[in-house]
Every structure is written in C-alpha cells, then in structure tokens.
Amino acid sequence: MIVVNTDFIPGYKVTKALGIARGNTIRAKHIGKDIVAGLRMIVGGEIKEYTEMLTEARNAALQRMVADAENQGADAVINVRFMTSQVMTGAAELLAYGTAVLVAKAD
C-alpha cells in the first residue's frame, strides 16, 4: 500500500478514486503518567508521556486508515492528513484520512 500526503505519486497515475479512507483512535495515559505529565507542565520542557501517547495514536489511526483503504480495494491512499482533538482532559482523538485510489505505473 502506497500512502502519501500529496495528490500524486511519482511514477504512477491514479486510475480511479474509490472514496475517503479513514481511521481513528482515542487515547489516554493512565493516572500515574498523567501526574508525571502535570509535574512537567510546572517545570517546563517536553511532556514525553503525551508525545508517546500521540505517537501511538497516530500509528494506530494510520494503520486503521490503511485497513479501510484495503477493504475498499485500494492500491494507495493520497492526500493523507491527520487531525487531533481533545475529547477530555488527558485524552485525545487522532484521525487519519485520505483518498483511497487505484493506481497504475505511468508510461
């Protein structure tokens, strides 16, 4: 599966757009990590607990988007974007979406 954030894939041509492929997840850290993150906010610096959480969420959302595209019969997903939103304190939703397409090697 080819996944790109552009509207084209070098060396390929889009032969058919199948629709929107999407995947999402909502993640939260356990209370111990939340407390540590709160202390880091007082001191300053990177809040590694949330960086890890969002990295895990991004990977899960991307995998789910690819699975959705595969279910549609796609060869690739173009115009991939990520969106995040806070759903409650310490929990965030991450959405990955793009256009599921069929591609062929360009001449």
Largest β sheet strand count, sense and barrel closure:
4 strands, mixed
Name the poorly predicted regions: none
How many separate structural domains? 1
C-alpha-based Rg, rounded: 17 Å
CATH class: Alpha Beta
Instruction: Look at the structure and name the CATH superfamily.
Output: Hypothetical protein apc22750. Chain B
CATH fold category name: Translation Initiation Factor IF3
Within the largest sheet, what's the order of strands? 1-3-4-2
Q: Give the helices and strands as they follow along the chain.
A: EEHHEE
Principal-axis shape: elongated
N-end to C-end Cα span = 20 Å
Mean pLDDT equals 88
The portion of residues forming beta strands comes to 35-45%
Helix content: 25-40%
CATH architecture: 2-Layer Sandwich
**DSSP E strands, number:** 4
Tally of helical runs: 2
Secondary-structure content class: alpha+beta
Give the key terms:
Translation Initiation Factor IF3; alpha+beta; about 110 residues
Write the layout of secondary structure elements.
Elements: E1 2-3, E2 12-28, H1 31-43, H2 48-71, E3 76-88, E4 91-105
Parallel strand pairs: 1-3
Antiparallel strand pairs: 2-4, 3-4
Give an overview of the whole structure.
There is one protein chain. Helix content is 35%, strand content 44%. It is of the alpha+beta class and 107 residues long. The protein has one domain: Hypothetical protein apc22750. Chain B (Translation Initiation Factor IF3, 2-Layer Sandwich). The protein has a 4-stranded mixed beta sheet. The protein is elongated. The two termini are 20 Å apart. The model has no long low-confidence stretch (mean pLDDT 88).
